Every structure is written in C-alpha cells, then in structure tokens.
User: What shape does this take?
Amino acid sequence: MQNHTLSLAVLLAAGGIFASPPLAAQSDGAPSFADPVRLNAGAKLLGERRLYPSPVYHDLDGDGLQDIVVGDLRGRLTVAKRLPGKGPAKYAEEKPVLAVDGKEIDFHNW
Assistant: This one.
C-alpha cells in the first residue's frame, strides 16, 4: 500500500476542510506547502456544517485508496470514500461510519 503524506487544515470559520500537499523542504528544513484546496465529498463540501471537524486519512474499506474519516466535537464519525481514478483525488458523499451491527458510530460527546 502506498503511503500518501498530505497536510489537512481545518477552516473553522467556514466549517470546511482544505488540503494542502507538501511541495518540498525549504533551505532551513521547514516544509513548503502548495496553496490549500477545498475538498468536496460528492456535491457538498467535506466537513460542512460540522463543529470542529477533525479529518484523518485511512483506507476504511481495504480497497487501497485513502478515504477521509471525519470526527467532530459532538462525537459523529463520517467517511468520504476516495473514488478510483487518475488525477486529483475525488471523494464520494460523506456517510456515517457504521459499526459491525450496522448502527451509526456516535460517541455522544454532548
């Protein structure tokens, strides 16, 4: 499985998630990043209307593609599965992460 390093930044004011891939290290060793790009999940913005969305890349379904799992302050977990294809990554609509019993995983923080 290929390891993809990608920095994710959370824009709290708009409640959205942006990606900014690393370009190269600067002469002082600090990383340099490309301009951030807003991520979509299907036709909607990833993490939209979520309170402090916290994304992580994880191949949730074992297909070799890094999906994005998003947790939030209220304890909800959703996944946007990466769609196969070349070029920039595209993601399916965000859906709740389900437990083995088929119930939605929710940590009920509030």
Q: What stands out?
A: The mean pLDDT is 81. The chain is about 0% helix and 40% strand. The longest strand covers residues 7-11. The radius of gyration is 15 Å.
